[in-house]
């Protein structure tokens, strides 16, 4: 085969350039510490690295969401702790107000502090987060959740939504609670009303308190008639004897007798309901118990009702006693609701903690796989560079010798 001088020169130059490019590329790998400089170096590993980087970015976003969720829940927990502290103080004031030895001025003093605690609770329930959104307004973060009306009652302006954040591929965690579920949907112990039957003449010294539902389990097990129940004192010979019927019914639901002590307030207990009876009936009275429709009552309305009872000079000892009894039971229900919300927050914080740990473990494995795919084996690269340097030097020296094999040099 005939090889021209030009072809020999081109082959030599191409060989030198190819060997020089190989050595330069190896030197660049060593200087960067990366085995893959372009996708062409290892297409399969390059695709896998891209997938791992995307996963790492998603984990970073999840970690940001976890931090935001933890901050929001921590603030809510602190707020609910403060609410619970205020409720404990309100309960102490309610117990103090139940002391029959207090005069109207003493009750007004208690009512004054109740008013201050009422304002404090209203402020806590309208707490904002760092973004200026209300904690307890559901999805309507810019709407103030609790508003006091002109008549002193409270209304909830938010919705029943619960804001959530995605903290894992298939896990969304609630970062807030709506105020209706925590502060408004509290079981009302005073949801029953008591009134004398239409044809009943009540003895002047007799008074029956509004029924108090103090055992929710027993009351829930009782199918309260839609028309209500009747408490009948129908034996003049034994005026303390009573029987309970469904309104208009003839079947005795319960029967009993009040205590013998005429000077004390007797209690009538039936299916989780308690009725205080002051005085001795004549034995001809009938009282009707009905639902008044207020199955739920907000914590603020409970405190407001107690405060108004204490502020009213016309409220006697019996009225104060009834108001305090309802308030204490409703406050206990309210604190149970707040404690349930705090327990749910604690459970979510535990989930956040374990999810953060899981994400850190996945990120660590992710980085390890990336290192195996991307990072350079320096021992192998240095050995390869040495070999490529030898080859390059050999190519350069051989090119010099071949370049000197010219016919003109012989003819000179």
Automatic annotation (TrEMBL):
Broad class of where this protein is predominantly found = other
Q: Report keywords, A-Z.
A: Bacterial flagellum, Cell projection, Cilium, Flagellum, Secreted
Biological process GO terms, please? bacterial-type flagellum-dependent cell motility
Tell where it localizes: Bacterial flagellum; Secreted
Its Gene Ontology cellular component terms are: bacterial-type flagellum hook; extracellular region
What molecular functions are annotated in GO for this chain? structural molecule activity
Name all Flagellin N-terminal domain ranges.
Answer: 3-139
**SUPFAM superfamilies with a match to the protein in the record:** Phase 1 flagellin (SSF64518)
Q: Which family does it belong to?
A: Belongs to the bacterial flagellin family.
Name assigned to this protein:
Flagellar hook-associated protein FlgL
- Its source organism is Stutzerimonas zhaodongensis
State the encoding gene.
flgL
